[in-house]
Design brief:
With about 120 residues, the protein is α/β, with parallel strands linked by helices. The chain has a single domain, classed as Rossmann fold. Helices cover about 40% and strands about 20% of the residues. The protein has 5 helices and 6 strands. It has a 6-stranded mixed beta sheet with strand order 2-1-3-4-5-6, with helices on both faces. Helix 1 crosses helix 5. The longest helix has 15 residues. The chain is globular. The relative contact order is 0.19.
């Protein structure tokens, strides 16, 4: 499966556009269903085989506590939430892990990331 991404509104349009410019297959929640709830986002991502990129910790609860199905989550846990930092960290993660992100849960900060 190729790397297909879904950028949550909490992460932003700039991140989606930036990843597209770097050649990634990206859909933005704001484009397909603005203000969608987290359950809808996760279901859309599963149906379309996409990895969710988000700043919303609720996705961790959905995956680990509720055992919701997913195709992969990248949770950005940033102290600096500027668009510039989000773009840099998101790109670093997808470049570093690539296909390993499919079905995985990744938590990424400005300095490091870990994959589960």
């Amino acid at each position: 499966m190729s790397l297909r991404l879904l950028v949550d509104e909490s992460t932003g349009e700039e991140v989606a556009a930036y990843l597209r410019r770097h050649g990634y297959d990206v859909v933005s929640v704001a484009e397909v269903f603005p203000q969608a709830d987290d359950s809808w986002i996760l279901q859309f991502a599963v149906n379309d085989q996409r990895i969710v990129i988000t700043n919303d910790k609720d996705f961790g609860d959905m995956v680990f506590r509720d055992q919701d199905e997913h195709c992969g989550i990248i949770l950005l846990r940033l102290s600096n939430t500027s668009a510039t930092v989000k773009k840099q960290v998101a790109l670093r993660v997808v470049q570093r892990y690539g296909e390993e992100l499919n079905g995985a849960f990744c938590v990424a900060s400005e300095k490091r990331s870990r994959l589960r």
